[in-house]
Specification:
By secondary structure, this protein is of the alpha/beta class. The chain is built from 7 helices and 5 strands, in the order E-E-E-H-H-E-H-E-H-H-H-H.
Length: 216
């Protein structure tokens, strides 16, 4: 479904995942599912189906780059025995538990997460911005989250390694799902309430939407 500002209320939750695109496959390592305003995102860890030692030299370089310069997740973070087969099951379970009949859609930015939702048969709305779109790019979402939402920005969940020589800001599925959820409740809805989107008014629109949101 295409998203406009008016149908943002149809979204009951947001989802994001991070992992490794190696061995011609995308392996989920971190899955974050955020439903409604009440809870923090649920975070699940998985282990790639192929062991690190079996990867090609090129794939090992990719893993190194992702762990050290992008999301900061170790390749073997997930518990042994928690395999990729469970990713779709986990998402379906979460959807059944949290979906609201009047709000059946999941908001998603990440293309890998889209594929998982498609596989799970769950309806979703692509919230990926670009030129001329009111939707945010990942960079804009991060700026929004850290400036407008939190006084002390939530950096990542605790699973991301920190190395002093590289950036401390990591791409975290928990953070992205949370920021996207809040973005949809505030910036995504200003036309509905006729609210201006300058930073000063953001907190007002946030409160106004939630007051109206009896089901959630
Ligand atoms: Zn994380």
């Amino acid at each position: 479904m295409e998203l406009d500002r008016y149908n943002a209320p149809l979204i009951f939750g947001t989802a994001d995942c991070q992992g490794f695109g190696v061995n011609n496959t995308f392996y989920v390592v971190e899955l974050a599912l955020k439903a409604g305003k009440k809870c923090e995102p649920n975070c699940f860890l998985f282990r790639p189906s192929v062991s690190y030692n079996e990867l090609s030299k090129k794939d090992k370089t990719t893993v190194y780059w992702l762990t050290n310069y992008y999301h900061g997740l170790p390749y073997d973070l997930g518990f042994r025995g928690v395999s990729q087969d469970e990713v779709v099951d986990k998402v379906i379970q979460w959807y059944k538990l949290n979906m609201i009949v009047e709000k059946p859609y999941v908001g998603v930015m990440n293309q890998e997460m889209e594929k998982i939702l498609l596989k799970a048969g769950i309806p979703y709305v692509i919230c990926r911005g670009g030129e001329g779109s009111f939707l945010p790019t990942t960079k804009e979402l991060m700026t929004f989250g850290s400036q407008a939402l939190c006084k002390s920005p939530f950096r990542t969940c605790g699973f991301h390694v920190k190395k002093p020589e590289t950036s401390l800001i990591r791409t975290c599925a928990v953070k992205k799902s949370m920021y996207l959820w809040h973005w949809l409740q505030t910036v995504g809805l200003p036309q509905v309430f006729g609210i201006k989107t300058d930073d000063q008014k953001l907190s007002n629109s946030f409160a106004l939407y939630f007051c109206d949101d009896k089901n959630n």
